[in-house]
Amino acid sequence: MKKRFNIKSYDINLKKNEIKFAIDCLKKNEIANGSYKKKFENSIKKITKSKYAVACANGTAALFLSLKLIGVKENDEVIVPAFSFIASINAIKYNQETLAKNKGSILLYSTIAVKQGFTNHTIVSSAKGALEALTLSLAAEFAPKIRVNCIAPSLTDAKMTQKLLSNETIKKAIENMHPLPKIGSGDDFSDIGSYLLSDKNSWITGQIFHIDGGRSSLRIKS
Fold first, then answer.
1. In sequence order, which residues have a C-beta less than 8 Å from that of residue 9 and are 6 or more positions away?
2. What is the pTM of this model?
3. Which among 31, 47, 94, 176 would be 20 to 30 A from 202, CA to CA?
4. For residue 140, what are the contacts with CB-CB under 8 A and spacing of at least 6?
5. How many other CB atoms are there within 10 angstroms of residue 98's CB atom?
């Protein structure tokens, strides 16, 4: 029987001082505001060497304010991580009015692992599968004012894949799994990404683009 592991998305590690300060905060009724919040903001400003720091109640509020501050507008790309809390999606939905006003476009990124089953891809394939479903749902909800599309590439030459692709034998084997035998690069889908986000795209939404050298849909003799 295979050994199973429980992988936590996060872990809480509270030590004596943290518990002490949390209790003190509750006793002083400083849950939403107060001296501890100010100390925290000042510490963040010092660490990040920033002029301002604002503590938010949760990640959703922080992302919402961030998108508001940077001013999401037409042709801006909103990239959502594959493995994340719902806060990432909420931030987009809360900015729906701004996106709609500017006829915005949202471009998400998935993976070939959704359409093809690979070993050791359970987490990423399920997360990205949900992302593709989200693409369709948001496209339907936001039409006709906001376009939502998704690009699903195969393995791409990038910093996170350098260790794997540094082995020439493995690299060649992976290349040969594609009908167009090569490892993809950002240049292979950057142009289509730019087009989907541009004003030129006026009639494409709710689509999953498989940029994968034909690997997800073609079978050829080796």
1. 83, 85
2. 0.65
3. 94
4. 206
5. 16
In Å, what is the CA distance from 208 to each residue of 110, 121, 170, 171?
A: 8, 19, 28, 26
208 membership: H or E segment, kind and range: strand 208-211
pLDDT at position 13: 75
pLDDT in tens, 56-92: 877 777 888 888 888 877 667 777 665 555 666 777 7
Residue spans of the domains in the chain: they are 15-55, 72-211
Contact partners, residue 98, CB within 8 Å, separation at least 6: 67, 68, 71, 72, 73, 104
Give the start-end residues of each E strand in 128-171: 147-153
- Whether the CB-CB separation of 52 and 80 falls below 8 Å is answered with no
Contact in structure between 109 and 151 (CB atoms under 8 Å): yes
CATH topology of domain 72-211: Rossmann fold (3.40.50)
Assigned token pair, 74: 């037409």
pLDDT at position 84 is 58
Length of the chain: 222
